[in-house]
Amino acid sequence: MKLVCIGDTHNKHQEINIPNGDVLIHVGDFTEAGTKHETLDFLEWFSERPHKHKIFIAGNHDFFMEKSGLSEFPELPPDVFYLEDEGVEIEGVKFWGSPVTPGNGTWAFNRKRGKQIRSHWNKIPGDTQVLITHTPPYSIKDRLSNKRHIGCEELFKRVKQLQLPLHIFGHIHNNYGKTRISPTTYINASSLDDQYRFHHSPIIFEV
Question: What Gene3D superfamilies does the entry give (predicted)?
Fold first, then answer.
């Protein structure tokens, strides 16, 4: 199964040249201001992609998704899956997705570090094969340009505890790329750089 990973497109999704694959994954921040109009524009575009299956989560910019979810939109096609602390199994591969990020509530899906955000990661099933989050785990592809790490400590602990094979995320634009710390492959799939330019190609990964 070929996964095509993108994220942090911030209303610029139509500018991306997306390669073919079996599952297209968006790791959140598909809007900039998080409005209903922006969200609908993304959903229409995403649903029309030719990939056999499509999975997306929200990010800290996607305020309308936190407020209303999918309740105010037409029903998604059967090949499109929105994950909010939940999972889906596709052709025998188990995916799990969550939009939450550490924060003080200023942004969408913010949760306090420690016990509050840990309650979300504790929901990740032990048999998850592909974890999709908006936030990176702490110290992995999460460093800002000022060298400060802002990923989630509790997520790092949970991924390590479960020994997950693959973790895909975004949020930190300038740390795009792949790294492997056995047994987990980590992918930061941010499509824009820290100046909101398309310098990052979709990342392809085979599972």
Answer: 3.60.21.10
